[in-house]
Amino acid sequence: MAEDSDQERTEDPTPRRLQQAREKGQVARSKELNTAAVLLASAFGMLIFGQSLAETLAKVMKRMFTLNYDEAHDVNQMMSAWPDVLVQLIFPMGGFIALLFVATFAGTILMGGLTFSAEAMAPKLNKMSPFKGFKRMFGVQALVELLKALAKFVFIALFAYLLLSFKFEEILHISIEDFPGNIAHAVQMLLLMFIILCLSLLFIVAIDVPFQIWNHTKQLRMTKQEVRDEMKDVEGKPEVKGRIRQMQREMAQRRMMAEVPKADVVVTNPTHYSVAIKYDVDGPSAPRVIAKGNDEVAMKIREIAREKEVPIMVAPPLARAIYYTTKLDKEIPEGLFLAVAQVLAYVYQMEQFKKGTGKRPTPLPNELPIPDELKH
Q: What are the start and end residues of every segment in region (Disordered) (predicted)?
């Protein structure tokens, strides 16, 4: 039972699975969104360019129906009238077609974005199989699409009926209006009803878009084993990751050891901890820890410090406090300022004494001023 449940596609697709599907051209798309965008663009295009287009078509018809004698009897002269006609149609027709083109493009990429997949364009032999073709035609997906189409038809038909019922008296009144005002009124009413009918498609879009997103996610769902396998592929096998982490630690340790010679002092607990401290007298920051470690790493820090003649101070409580409270390359906490200042002052005075330019400093007290909450 457990093995069977592992094979159920219960896990949401990972980002990598979604990216792979996108590369294959498999993205969530809504035909209803594209259809609504094109129809709404058509409706508003007629609203914007309709009058100009109607006036231009009237001029074209008038021009083509009022040919002179020579144009009517000479094909070449008749064809010479077409450039004038086409020039007049460029603006209204061009604007309308451009609006439809933009709406078609926007409706396609609005959901799922712009994708290009050579794999999706390549011919697939399995799609040429008659058996699979019949399976697609009479399968569950085809039944769902049929039911959706019927539901859309019923919804649009009902909405159109309600709209016609609401405008019924106005439609009847057109027949008793004067010509040509009744024609203009009819055109305006048709355009308004067309726009309202197109807007009703937004209700279908509001249902279809979430459904397509859900259906796309459902199709890409993964089994628990697939998720585990992908994690192994992406992150690598545990032993490989362990080796990588070890190499990273070694590289970080080498970088840290290269900083030890730059330290002003190394504070140690002789058997367990070592911290290397650097203080820039002219800088605005407090002393920082440029290297730290315990056990073997602590011994290595002390070894390098001795080789590079970096002062080493034995102060077990301070070494432990700095080791546990301060991250690498970070400033020491405010509570340790006074204790570290005493250590740095002692080191500076000792250097001056060795150079013969100062007196021997007073030995550090056995107990440095370390707050109880910072002691370890």
A: 1-28, 356-376
